[in-house]
Amino acid sequence: MASSKCTTIVRYMSSASSQGMIKPPIKVFGIEGRYATALFSAGSKQKNLETIEKDLTKFQTALKSDEVLKEFVDNPINKRLLKANTLQLAAKKLALSPPSANFLGKYILILI
């Protein structure tokens, strides 16, 4: 009885957060799509989608131009926590907005 109430509460809470999501104009699938949708939703709510786009372009340029950073991120031997810390430092160095830095430091590690 108590476990079914907990399950109901958990389901309610999880559906409440998904109801607040803003859907992107293009539907994307998979894990990448899930995180891209979350970033789009956060950017839409904060009204800074253009800033996030510029941040991601800036980070992509940094990865292309900095071979050491690219090799470090691509190397499967490096621990995820070390990669997360390095990406957070890169986000600070590039002066990325908080949603972009959060995305790079936490969510992108699932995709790497």
Automatic annotation (TrEMBL):
<dbReference type="InterPro" id="IPR000711">
    <property type="entry name" value="ATPase_OSCP/dsu"/>
</dbReference>
<keyword id="KW-0472">Membrane</keyword>
<dbReference type="InterPro" id="IPR026015">
    <property type="entry name" value="ATP_synth_OSCP/delta_N_sf"/>
</dbReference>
<dbReference type="Pfam" id="PF00213">
    <property type="entry name" value="OSCP"/>
</dbReference>
<keyword id="KW-0406">Ion transport</keyword>
<keyword id="KW-0375">Hydrogen ion transport</keyword>
<dbReference type="GO" id="GO:0016020">
    <property type="term" value="C:membrane"/>
</dbReference>
<protein>
    <recommendedName>
        <fullName>Oligomycin sensitivity conferral protein</fullName>
    </recommendedName>
</protein>
<keyword id="KW-0813">Transport</keyword>
<keyword id="KW-0066">ATP synthesis</keyword>
<dbReference type="GO" id="GO:0046933">
    <property type="term" value="F:proton-transporting ATP synthase activity, rotational mechanism"/>
</dbReference>
<comment type="similarity">
    <text>Belongs to the ATPase delta chain family.</text>
</comment>
